[in-house]
Amino acid sequence: MASEERSERTVSSTIVNLAEEAKDFREGVKAPSPAFLSICKSLVAGGVAGGVSRTAVAPLERLKILLQVQNPHSIKYSGTVQGLKYIWRTEGFTGLFKGNGTNCARIVPNSAVKFFSYEEASKGILWLYRKQTGNEDAKLTPVLRLGAGACAGIIAMSATYPMDMVRGRLTVQTDKSPTQYRGIFHALKTVFIEEGPRALYKGWLPSVIGVIPYVGLNFAVYESLKDWLIRSKPFRLNEDSELSVTTKLACGAAAGTVGQTVAYPLDVIRRRMQMVGWKHAASVVTGDGKSKAPLEYTGMIDAFRKTVRNEGFGALYKGLVPNSVKVVPSIAIAFVTYEVVKDALGVEMRISD
């Protein structure tokens, strides 16, 4: 009992000390401690990882969203290659990266918070697990990693959701749209004024539900695969050995494939719910001025029901091919970039520690 009280006092003391050090650093009183610098470097590494990975696959990200929300009565994007060619032909090279600035403005803080939250959640869950089992040498299991990843995904997604909301609309609009969002802040302001503050969180529920298997599986599969490869006989590595960058990329690709396949239908529903209330959504997607008005959804279940009833079950996987092509390298690049940047910044703590 005494040891538990000492442990709780130590945690509380650490939090207080970090807060005081941050204040002193802003006021120029003294240099930040190694612990505070480690946290900042971890956040920077996560942000860089998110920005690099998303920019690398920005054209596929835009095509995925266009496929998800296009009007079924006026098909313009019929596949990955055709869709990319159509965007290039009608909007030029810059059209392939439309909405990427907004995406990076969202994903950089999202990725920073996600990776850092995973590290902290992992440590907290491991501490509770060791306390419950009485085994001080216990390691994180795939299920515990899944839980830590789910916590990290929910925290990061909720913190940056309005940015994701307007990013979807900026990505969908074209030069023929009757009303143009001029940028991130203009879109946020316009949605807030015309549709109300709650509109900024349209599709939040399926996002929360979807982020649990998506982010959770990403971290769980990535870390578990790394552990398995280190311990497997073909590699003959000990626990202190490092896998090659190529092997880590393969682990990240596998993690991304599993996570996105499970959570993809929820991503489609989220994106469609985000378009509800935008009176120019249909014309933005089809550009023909004669398309039917977008469906209205009363909630997540209603969106699922109407999508399947009107377009079939396959509609829940619209855009899956470009998303698969996008997610595999994106997740792989994000994980590896995160670890490389942390090594470059000299941070000893890693996501598998």
Automatic annotation (TrEMBL):
GO BP terms: transmembrane transport
The entry's keywords: Membrane, Mitochondrion, Mitochondrion inner membrane, Repeat, Transmembrane, Transmembrane helix, Transport
Major place of residence: mitochondrion
One GO location term (cellular component): mitochondrial inner membrane
Residue stretches of each Solcar repeat: 37-124, 140-228, 243-344
Keyword Transport: yes
Membrane topology: Multi-pass membrane protein
Subcellular location field: Mitochondrion inner membrane
Family: Belongs to the mitochondrial carrier (TC 2.A.29) family.
PANTHER family, per database record: SOLUTE CARRIER FAMILY 25
Record's protein name: Mitochondrial adenine nucleotide transporter ADNT1
Highest classification ranks of the organism: Eukaryota, Viridiplantae, Streptophyta, Embryophyta, Tracheophyta
